[in-house]
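Long-time lurker. I teach an intro course on protein structure, and each term I like to show students one example going from raw sequence to a predicted 3D structure in token notation. This year I'd like something fresh instead of my usual example. Would anyone be willing to generate the tokens for the chain below so I can use it in lecture? Attribution to the forum is fine with me.
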Amino acid sequence: MVKPLHHKLWRDVRRQRAQFIAITITIFLGVTIFGATYDSFRNLQASYAATATDFRFANLTTAGGDVATIATEAAATPGVESAEVRSVADIPFNVGGVKLLGRIIGVPAGEQPTVNQLSVLEGIYLAPGSGDVLVEKHMADHFDLSPGDLFDIRMSGRWQAVTVAGVVASPEYIWPARDRQELITSADNFGVIFAANAEVALATDGSPNEATIYFTGGGEDDALSNDLAAMARSHGAISTYTRAEQASNAGLTEDLKGFEEMAVFFPLMFLLAAAMAAYVMISRVVHSQRPQIGVLLANGFTRRQVRRHYLGYGLVPGLLGSIPGAVAGILLARLITEMYTGMLSIPVTLVQFYPATLIGAVLFGLVASLLAALAPALVASRVMPATAMRGETPSGGGRRSTVERLFPPIRRVPVGWRMAIRGVGRNPRRTVYTIVGVVLSLMLVLVSWGMIDTVQHLMDRQFVEIQQEDATVYFGEAAGAADVAALAEIDGVAAVEPALTLPVSLGSDGEHHYETALLVLADDTEMHRFLTTDGNWISLPRSGLVLGQATQNLLDVAVGSKVAMTIAGVGVVQEEIVAFVDEPLGTMAYMSRGRAESLTGDVLPATSALVTYEPGTDAAELRRTLTELPAVAAFEDANALYAVVQKYMVLFYGFVGIMLVFGAAMAFALIFNAMSVNIAERTREVATLLAVGTDRRSISRYIAAENLLVAALGIPIGLVVGYFAAKSALASFSSDLMALDLYIRPTTFALAAAAILLVALISQWPGLRAIRRINIPKIIKERSA
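-- Reply from a regular --
Happy to contribute to a lecture. Here you go:
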């Protein structure tokens, strides 16, 4: 009894193969994205975790204060496996004539540190008394440094040559970030080297300035971290941060969060679209086959058999899309993981097979397709045989559409347009299906496109609107007014302003703390603009603090609140918050030079100077001239940094671009399916129009106009839903590292709408071609049977 139903199923699949293929492809894409992103997420998560354990990545790091006592007390605390002190300093490097402000970190000579160990990729580890250095891989790659090469570093007020003993990878600098406020740096502006502790101590007044603490087994322990951080602050620590808060790890965690979000959001959209397309198609099949269903039931087929038969219409594309999609996703995840870990030089790369992902991906696709088939299958199984075999006889007469009643002038438009308008409301079910398809398509396109627009807009805001300087010049020692004035005398320099950067700890109520950098700028600075969270541009206030917007929640403060600002060498200062600024990168604190000097009671030096160029100046030549000045230790090109940001965004653009292409494919498949069903449902109607003399070209135009009108009705809804979906997707990525507030260009809305209309037009072509092949006598005979 069941075998004829199998034959019927495959015959129907062949007859509607275009629609089945579209649904299968959509399921395949959704399952592939799920498998690729989720397995990549798990592989990267495992790789980071293995790196942290294998190389004993510090669970807590403290800077400043009595680090020796902090390390001693930490080592004696239950749950702590290792604690040691080290010296860390940001000093000038000169590599092949390029001056930059790099970081030198002390490690034991002759043996690995017990915390934050290094992976030696080339050469050897430091030998005792050698005076050599180890170069972090990102810096080595950029400057093409190998064991045996020489470059200069500035220590104790003079330049000295050092030899590269080896190239290493560090768990602290998988992503080469200077700190949380400078998450993205140019290799021309920042690099990391490691030297013997005794030698690095010369740059830190002869004593260590950091304590690194590793917990037993390497696992995180929030309670232990809080207790140790409180202990460190009691001994004068200026900064304490956990592994999760460490700049490089925090940046990587944000990336992982992105993979995790993508692993759910995008596949869900694809499978929801596939389910909707399958539901529309199977509902249409059930509707058109009601007489056949009545015959089956009347001839002994049970309702359960009929229900299973129509569930098969969901099972077929579900299996054909899910199984190869799951395999493709797992293979793609391996490629993504290896490419990603190789680009970042992650010391440990784990690419594993997760059976749960394979099974989950297949079930993900199957459940979506079977749920889509369930409702139509239930409808089919509940058909009354006698009623179904008699067929449906339309009742009632024709009437004007709602639009015609609301807008009477429409009654005078040509009959073809009136047919299209009436067609929209004549079959609400069909209209709603098409509108939902348009909304889902626009939602996926806008989420992808909105991410690209947002990143580009925010980078322009940061590097074009907010940061007005062309370069930052760093001094070897604290500089005075004369050193800053000397820069202004250089040909090609338009303006110079002194700047002072100090590490500070902000506290609001004894419980909330945030470590950041305080940037002291000229009272009337024109190098840095301030955009408040309410959208207004302001000048730097003469008194009070200006803070990044993330501190509102981090410190639980508001404008007018006072914060305790701990400054190394100064102490604790109570200062009022006068504004919060909306800056895409980092969460800095700002203060005017006049206010800072009044708090310290002394004339403050400059650690750097912000420089703008004369129009038409050769930037490369000016850089060489400025870095040759004796007082200048390092140089940071703002435009080069912008270029680096764009370079780092290539991976992001590539990933989102793939999502956009997949989204466009899904949109085509979804709208094609809806349009094909719309045309297929009207076969008898078309045959009747042909029988009374209407030419096929006119009928095609009427149907195409109706479908485009329905698509146009769905576009405004889709744009609104897509906007809020994109806003929700980006909101989860915002932190003190980066503020991602959705921005979509008006042209993006227009282009997305135009693209959907174009897809709607193109997707009708196969169905409209079928009108030419309609057999009028056969259709009329079937209708009268």
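Some talking points for your students: The chain has a mean pLDDT of 82. The chain has 24 helices and 22 strands.
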